[in-house]
Amino acid sequence: MAKTILIVDDSASLRQVVNIALASAGYEVIEAVDGVDALTKLDGRKIHLIISDVNMPNMDGITLVKEIKQKADYKFTPIIMLTTESQDDMKAQGQAAGARAWVVKPFQPAQMLAAVSKLIAP
């Protein structure tokens, strides 16, 4: 059975690029437009990995990571931040919140897939 990945980003075009890369590598993909939408998708189904932007309306990525870590079903789900933010203090905030990896946009799909496969095998 394919592993399921939740993509959280307010950019439809970015979600599409990530979705195509992940789907072609054999992953099942669920999309959310922001942190609030992402939390509605965490409804008990098995999610193997979450890829989230940092800067989004309604709920930013760091807050989302903290919220996810409060949920028993998703506490140990690995999270990759995919963002334009490259400052060390933002990375530190992300790591402190529980993010496992940090990929800076613009990114190469292969680079993102390498980060994904380190955290979960397809």
From TrEMBL:
PROSITE patterns tied to this protein: RESPONSE_REGULATORY
InterPro entries for the chain: Bact_response_regulator, CheY-like_superfamily, Sig_transdc_resp-reg_receiver
Ranges where the Response regulatory domain occurs: 4-120
Keywords: Phosphoprotein
Pfam family name, one: Response_reg
GO biological process, one term: phosphorelay signal transduction system
Modified residues (4-aspartylphosphate): 53
Taxonomy, superkingdom: Bacteria
SUPFAM superfamilies: CheY-like
Signal peptide: none
Protein's name according to its UniProt entry: Chemotaxis protein CheY
The encoding gene: cheY4
